[in-house]
Amino acid sequence: MATTIRITPTLSGKSSKQFNMSLSKNSTVKVSASRKENMSALVKKVLSNKK
Fold it and tell me: Does the pLDDT value for residue 41 go beyond 90?
């Protein structure tokens, strides 16, 4: 079965400003080295099980 694709509406006005503020706040947040290693290990594990 296919998944229905929905077009995301363009943000404007107040919604756009809120989105841009959220992006600017989160742009400085970095993932810790240990968390990054855990995520990459999980990805490798999942990909190794793929056939």
Answer: yes
Q: Transcribe 3-48 into DSSP letters.
A: PPP-PPPPP-THHHHHHHHHHHHHTT----HHHHHHHHHHHHHHHH
**Do 11 and 19 touch, CB atoms closer than 8 A?**
yes
Nearest-angstrom CA–CA distance, 24 and 18: 10
Model pTM greater than 0.85? no
19 vs 5: CA distance, rounded Å: 22
3-state SS, residue 49 = helix
Q: Which two tokens stand for residue 2?
A: 């296919």
